[in-house]
Amino acid sequence: MRLATRLTVLLVVITTVVALSVGWYAVNSSTHSAYQTLDGTINAVVQSGRGTPDAALSDAINVDEENNFDLTFDVVYSNGSVTQLISANNPLIVNPTLSDVRTSLAGVVSEPNLRGFLVRSLNIGGGDYLLVAASTHSISRSSQQLILRVALAAVLAALVMVVVARLFMRRDLVTMEGLINFASDVAEGETSEAVPPVRGSKDVRELQRALASMVLSLQEKIDVESRHAESMQTFIGDASHELRTPLTVIKGYTDLISNPDVSSEQLTRAIERMKTEIIRMEALVSDLLFLAEVRELPTKNSEPLDLSEVVATRVREFHDDHRDRAIDTRIEPRLSIVGRRDFVERMMTNALANITRHTPENAPVFVRVARDGVVVRLSIEDGGPGLPVYDQRPKHFRRFDPSRSRDSGGSGLGMSIMADLSEAMGGEMVTSPSSLGGLCLTFTFQGV
After folding, report:
1. Helix (DSSP H) and strand (DSSP E) numbers for the chain
2. Domain definitions of the chain by residue range
3. Contacts 24+ apart (CB under 8 A), 16-21
4. Which among 110, 114, 167, 253 is least surrounded, fewest beta carbons within 10 Å?
5. Range with the lowest mean pLDDT among 96-110, 183-197, 209-223, 352-366?
6. What is the pTM of this model?
7. Residue 293 pLDDT class (50, 70, 90 cuts)
8. What are the residues whose beta carbons fall under 8 Å from the beta carbon of 153, sequence distance 6 or more?
9. Number of neighbouring beta carbons within 10 Å of residue 200
10. What are the distances in angstroms from CA 226 to CA 35, 220, 222, 250, 441?
11. Residues 185-189: contacts with CB within 8 Å, 24+ apart?
């Protein structure tokens, strides 16, 4: 069922229910008032003759004649016979019984065998009784007519409400129908069409803006996923190549040592080379698993982290292992970010390991942690040879300096791991020339 039809049905139901509820209350109140008036008429006649049984009949007749009441007077004798003294426009046809009389002495009642009448009895002496009856036919007929009018009014009100609502909601309904069709197209993969123009009420305009934002976000995510898929294909190919190289070396030396004519010197050299390749492959697999963890759960266990304390600790450890280096630090205390301690420690480990691997043993190092507005910057500078190019996002298995061999340059994941870790914590890594003549790594994070 379409939205316009649902709204129409809802309006019809609500309007009809409200109109019928009001009409029922009006009919019920009118009927109750009519019955009270009829009770009062009967009671006025009966009360006039109470207390003086001998004159009760004449008093009741006088009151009826003076007020021109439309009542039926039946005298019920002690032997059960009945005489109708006065007939109303709608007279009592069924003769009342002594049982009816006794039941109605206390007040106005409706007897089962006298349907359509309200009756009350009066003792007129000598064991005889006067039964006063009033027909309820006119009240029932008026109630039925009123119910019919209420029903017609409810139907008319519902129709008027539908017409008025459709006129007021026409623009909203047309716009919403266009948005529904647009959303269906997007669900089927058609994201090139423009969002329908804004027309209608504030709610519809907000819906249009939300839908436009959703489509834009969806397009961005599709683009990101496409780039990610392409990057993943390249990554898988490079990883396969990097893993295949040590496996090929190990396989070659395995064939060599299986030769019974191999010398002890060749055997020793083969085993050492196999150990080296195994260690390198183990490190490569460890880096690949770590990268997978960073991609899948980048914010797991993230919490406020004292960056100053973590960096200072790692720099002290580096200084203890490299006494020949001049290490200068400028670390502002208690600068915190939202991140993971193991991620920051891995970044520091990779950065300092690169300095150890690619710079002279006496090359100076400068580490700084400082706040810059709402961000916190970590800079690690060295006095080494630097990079051929700067300010480029590192790629997996791609070395900035192609002249570096695998033995000196690692797997080519160190720099990209640092970039991935900084981005996983909501920051970024930038490479630039160092004031010491080498490389400067700058990590920027959102401060706490």
Report:
1. 10, 11
2. 3-140, 201-296, 301-446
3. 16/154, 16/155, 16/157, 16/158, 19/150, 19/153, 19/154, 19/157, 19/158, 20/150, 20/151, 20/154
4. 167
5. 183-197
6. 0.46
7. low
8. 19, 23
9. 18
10. 81, 10, 6, 36, 29
11. 186/215, 186/218
Residue type, 102: R
Q: What is the 3-state secondary structure (H, E, C) of 192-216?
A: CCCCCCCCCCHHHHHHHHHHHHHHH
Tokens 């960096």 label which residue? 311
Inter-CA distances, 82 with 9, 92, 119, 376, Å: 59, 12, 15, 110
- Region 201-296: CATH code: 1.10.287.130
Residue 69 tokens read as 């009441």
Query: How far are the Cα atoms of 135, 380, 404 from residue 123, in angstroms, in the given order?
Result: 21, 118, 129
List, in sequence order, every residue forming a beta bridge with 128; answer none if it has no partner.
125
Can you read off the two tokens belonging to residue 31? 């009927």
Q: In angstroms, how far apart are the furthest CA atoms of the chain?
A: 152
Which amino acid type is present at position 390? Y
Q: Distance between CA atoms of 182 and 205, rounded to whole angstroms?
A: 15
What does residue 413 show for φ and ψ, rounded to 5 degrees? -105, -15
The CATH classification number of 301-446 equals 3.30.565.10
Using pLDDT thresholds of 50, 70 and 90, give the confidence band for residue 273.
Answer: confident
Structure tokens at 372: 């810059």
- Joined tokens for residue 183: 């959303």
Radius of gyration of the chain (CA): 50
Question: Could you give the angle at the alpha carbon of 92 between the alpha carbons of 88 and 94, nearest 5°?
Answer: 165
**CB of 131 within 8 A of CB of 104?**
yes
CA distances from 136 to 54, 92, 103, 332, 407 (A): 30, 11, 19, 98, 112
